[in-house]
Amino acid sequence: MPRLTRASATLLAFAATGLLSPAWAEQMMFHADLTGAAQVPPVDTAATGAADVTVDSDAMTVSWTVTYEGLSGDPVAAHFHGPASPEETAPPVIDISANLAQGSAEITPEQMQMIQDGQTYINIHTEANPDGEIRGQVMAAAQ
Predict the structure, then answer these.
(1) What is the CA radius of gyration of the chain?
(2) 69-79: per-residue pLDDT in tens?
């Protein structure tokens, strides 16, 4: 059996702890379909939308791409809200108003957990619907 030198034993110890492996962030993918019917209470609108969301657990960021059409007017605000099930409402936790179409933000461990647990929703607010015109629960994306 080969004899381990102090240097090779140290190298093996570092490898076992993961200190020599590359730091790969876990990229978690989520999706939301945005409709007026998902609002609580439901909103009568022809507007629809979709959001693709990525959480980077190493950088502690969330990024999004949101598309929508048919709103009653220009969006006046947009947020991730939580924690809430699809039947509940909750306060905004991440403001995406300034970069609705595409953006990113730093998140807290609690916000990351809410997203992972399916306890956040994206809500787009308009002047005609200040509580939100279309909404969609952020859920793990189909693989």
Answers:
(1) 21
(2) 999 999 999 99
